[in-house]
Design a protein that fits this description.
This protein is α+β, with helices and mostly antiparallel strands and about 325 residues long. The chain contains twelve helices and twelve strands. The protein has helices at about 60-70, 95-110, 120-130, 135-140, 175-180, 190-210, 215-220, 225-230, 235-240, 270-285, 310-320, 325; strands at about 5-15, 25-40, 45, 80-85, 145-150, 155-160, 165-170, 250, 260-265, 290-295, 300, 330-335. The longest helix is centred in the middle third of the chain and has 20 residues, at about 190-210.
Length: about 325
């Protein structure tokens, strides 16, 4: 039995960035780590505060996606030993399922000698998620402008300027993507479609050119956020007023409930903005925490620097954990949502 182990690190992601529904995504420096090896029996070990509801048998998403890779490559590998540590909260709009899919694809592909191209992994992950924004960001890093037409996905990667930071406010309740999609209408007025096309175009141009002064206008949306606001108390106030407290722009992260503000790293209003987000949610009795993040310029990575004398978890804590996740400021306010 080949006992070779593969380890990958995959970033979280945010999708839509306001108007770019199912087409814009950005990788964030919040990570999940996956270790995978062949085994005589399947065993799955989960670590991290967000993993208590994740199955540890062959219904596990990472195991199932790995088997799709083996089937595509016509390789049999029915049993695996898998270890997972994740800092990415589940069902909060930060791409937890996309990171699991991308990490599983990359690890399984590496385990059998990388017969599948990066493009093939992108096609598989887009088909699994039914949209390419989160998976594209986690695969390739940076900001992704992409489409998936049901048969093929295409993307272009945008590298944000170094001064772009991301403040997220993460409510302490779950919101499934399925529930968040069910509140959306089947049809929208032509004027709303035109609104989002024009704003998405301006947002992409602003991100490509570094004209971040346009972001506050370009991140506005009428296709999904007004409908999803009913699910997230305080969201409408934050979308309307966050730019008054120093945000370059603000949006719902993916399907939510996390809210995301883009911020100039040199801004003198970061503390005011953080307090505004937390206090607005607290006024609605929503418990939440904030995190300061950055765009992750790299997507999923195969880890080669690994101390074989340490355990999987010790390697992450002492060797691979990025500095931003070891002590960057996190704010929190209570509530009873």
């Amino acid at each position: 039995m080949n006992k070779a182990k593969v380890r990958v690190r995959v970033p979280a992601s945010t999708a839509n960035l306001g108007p770019g529904f199912d087409s814009l995504g950005m990788a964030l420096n919040l990570y999940a780590w996956i270790e995978m090896s062949r085994s005589e029996t399947t065993s799955i070990h989960l670590y991290g505060d967000h993993m208590d509801q994740v199955p540890t048998d062959k219904t596990n998403l990472i195991y199932k996606v790995a088997q799709m890779v083996f089937a595509e490559a016509e390789v049999e590998c029915p049993d695996l030993e898998i270890s997972v540590y994740s800092d990415i909260p589940l069902t909060r709009g930060l791409g937890s399922s996309a990171s699991a899919i991308v990490g599983a694809l990359a690890a399984a592909n590496q385990l059998i000698g990388s017969p599948l191209s990066a493009d093939k992994l992108f096609q598989m992950s887009s088909a699994l998620e039914k949209h390419p924004d989160n998976v594209g960001a986690s695969l390739f890093g940076g900001i992704i402008a992409a489409y998936w037409d049901g048969e093929r996905a295409e993307y272009i990667k945008i590298e944000p300027k170094p001064n772009l930071k991301v403040l997220v406010a993460i409510p302490e309740f779950h919101l499934s993507t399925d529930k968040a999609r069910k509140v959306l209408p089947d049809y929208v007025p032509l004027k709303d479609a035109v609104f989002n096309v024009s704003h998405t175009s301006l947002l992409v141009a602003a991100l490509c050119s570094g004209r971040y002064d346009y972001i506050r206008h370009a991140m506005k949306d009428v296709l999904h956020q007004p409908y999803r606001a009913q699910l997230i108390p305080g969201m409408t106030t934050i979308l309307d007023k966050a730019t008054d407290f120093g945000a370059l722009g603000v949006a719902l992260s993916g399907a939510g409930p996390t809210l995301l503000a883009l911020v100039d790293a040199d801004s003198g209003h970061k503390s005011n903005l953080e307090h505004f987000l937390l206090e607005t949610l607290q006024a609605e009795e929503v418990s939440a925490r904030t995190m300061w993040l950055k765009p992750s310029l790299t997507g999923v990575e195969v880890l080669t620097s690994w101390d074989e004398q340490r355990s999987f978890l010790d390697n992450i804590i002492h060797g691979e954990m990025p500095p931003a996740n070891k002590g960057e400021s996190v704010g929190k306010m209570g509530g009873s949502y």
